[in-house]
Every structure is written in structure tokens, then in C-alpha cells.
Design a protein that fits this description.
It comes from Streptococcus chenjunshii. This is DsbA family protein. This protein has 286 residues and is α+β, with helices and mostly antiparallel strands. 47% of the residues lie in helices and 14% in strands. The chain is built from 13 helices and seven strands. The strands form two sheets. It has a four-stranded mixed beta sheet with strand order 2-1-3-4, sandwiched between helices. Strands 5-7-6 form a three-stranded antiparallel beta sheet. A hairpin with a 2-residue loop joins strand 3 and strand 4. The radius of gyration is 19 Å and the shape is globular.
Length: 286
């Protein structure tokens, strides 16, 4: 049987992409061995001045950015209800006079993908976490360098490839493929199977994906609930050493936080729970 390919085109700064993480865990677990998810980059904010209101632009630059970041925080928080992935918008300062585009986040991902492709997905998750759950200014190169170092990359090596033609070409390839889809909005999901494909954008639920996959594959690929046991949990944590309770709830169809905590309790010596606002992230230590 051929694999179903799901290409996810998104800007790492996007709340809609961050809130889609539980749905992506659903796809990985319910279509295990039948699906491959590939992360492709897009840039939501090419120039933040284009996103500012006339009112915001009427102020001196520093005040204008304070007002814009404050409004951006409210946009993020409105998206939190999609899946409940926790957000920390207390002191959001994503854009500034010196950092006026979200392009650095996509470049950082493509740099890690180029240097250590096996760690690219984990880096992308960590990048989203830093941006949205920790409120760090990930448009800033120094912050990206700190994150890259936690994945064993030296600052010198990271900067060299971050500025290289090779990474730039890889990023432009993602942009070109997205443009050829002729679909508006982000994130965009392209599903491909046996020469056929379809693409959708925006907020897509697990049920939406089930329907799309059934139609595209002519019911050849069907979802299957994973085993709710420690063997499967360890496999999941090996693949996603940082994961939210929301994602575990979606994978195993739990109804409460209490159920999840009881389920993961046998691995407590290897887990660190990090509270973010009204939810938790699990950090798995092998």
C-alpha cells in the first residue's frame, strides 16, 4: 500500500498551526504506518507594517509596535479555543523596530532541516512552543541561536547555513510549491495519494481529515484507534519528547486531565510536567 503524504504549509509563528498539533498527533497515531507528514514553510508576515492599522502607524515606532503586539496577542488568544493548546501572551513582543518580519522562523527551521533533518520536526515544535507558549521573541536571531544550541548546533555553524544559498533555495522551493496550489489562507494542507491530491486551508478537524482521506484514497486507508498502553505511549514520547496534555487527550480519546495523569503515572520518573497557563506540557527524559 502506498503512503498517504500530508504536506503542511505554515509559518511557525501561526497560532492556527500551533493549535493544529493535536490533530497532527491524531493523524500520526490513527493512520500509523500509512501516512507521512512533511512540514513546509510559509511566511505570514513579510512586513509587519502591512499588518498595522492606520491608528497604530500614527504613533512613533516603539509605541506603534507595542500597540500592534498587544493586538496580535488578542488574535492569538482568540485561537486558543480551537484545541486548547495553551498560550502565554502576557508580554508578547514578537515584532519590534529591528524585527519586522516572521521570515527568520522559517529560515531557522529550514536550517535545522538542512543540518539535522532527523531533528527538524522536534525543532519546529520547540520553536512554536517558544513563540506562543513562552512568549519569546523568536523573530530575533539571538533567540533562534539559543534554541538551535539545545539541539546540539553551534552558533557559528547555524549562522553559516542560516545565511547560505542552500537554505534559501530550500525555503524558496517551499514557497513555490505553495504558490502552485493556488489556495488562499494558511495553514495549507496538501494530501497526496497514488498520483491524486487535494488541498485545504484553515482550521481542519480530525473528522475533516478522516473524510478527506477516505475520499482521496477511495476508502483504502482508514483510521484505527491506537492501543492505550505504555508501549504505545513510550513510542509516542520517543517521537515527541515534548508534548501537551491536549495532544495525549486527542491521541487516546481521554475525557479528562485526571485520566491522562493516571495513564502516564508509571513513567513519572522520566517525565517533567511544565504548567503553562491552564494546561501542561510533558517533557520526556529517556
Amino acid at each position: 500500500m502506498m503512503m498517504l503524504i500530508v504536506d503542511v504549509f505554515a509559518d511557525p509563528m501561526m497560532g492556527l498551526a500551533y493549535e493544529a498539533e493535536p490533530v497532527l498527533r491524531y493523524l500520526e497515531s490513527h493512520y500509523a504506518g500509512k501516512i507521512a507528514i512533511r512540514y513546509r514553510m510559509a511566511v505570514l508576515v513579510k512586513d509587519v507594517y502591512d499588518w498595522m492599522t492606520p491608528f497604530e502607524r500614527s504613533f512613533p515606532a516603539e509605541q506603534a509596535f507595542k500597540l500592534y503586539n498587544r493586538r496580535l496577542a488578542q488574535i492569538y488568544l482568540a485561537e486558543e479555543a480551537i484545541s486548547g493548546m495553551p498560550m502565554n501572551m502576557d508580554n508578547l513582543n514578537l515584532f519590534s523596530v529591528a524585527e519586522t518580519t516572521s521570515l527568520p522562523l522559517s529560515l531557522a527551521y529550514k536550517t535545522v532541516e538542512y543540518l539535522v533533518p532527523q531533528q527538524a520536526e522536534a525543532f519546529l515544535y520547540r520553536l512554536r512552543l517558544a513563540t506562543i507558549a513562552e512568549g519569546r521573541q523568536t523573530t530575533k536571531l539571538s533567540v533562534l541561536l539559543e534554541l538551535a544550541e539545545t539541539f546540539g548546533l553551534s552558533k557559528a555553524n547555524f549562522i553559516h547555513y542560516y545565511q547560505s544559498d542552500s537554505v534559501s533555495a530550500a525555503l524558496n522551493k517551499d514557497f513555490s510549491e505553495l504558490e502552485m496550489l493556488h489556495i488562499g489562507g494558511l495553514p495549507v494542507y496538501r494530501l497526496s495519494y497514488e498520483g491524486r491530491w487535494t488541498a485545504v486551508s484553515g482550521v481542519i478537524t480530525a473528522a475533516n481529515f478522516d473524510r478527506l482521506i477516505s475520499q482521496l484514497t477511495e476508502q483504502q486507508i482508514k483510521p484505527q484507534q491506537p492501543d492505550r498502553d505504555l508501549k504505545h505511549l513510550k513510542q509516542l514520547l520517543d517521537q515527541h519528547p515534548i508534548i501537551s496534555l491536549n495532544e495525549l487527550k486527542t491521541v487516546y480519546d481521554f475525557q479528562s486531565e485526571k485520566e491522562i495523569k493516571e495513564f502516564i503515572a508509571p513513567l513519572s520518573e522520566n517525565l517533567v510536567l511544565d504548567k503553562v497557563k491552564n494546561s501542561w506540557f510533558i517533557h520526556y527524559r529517556r
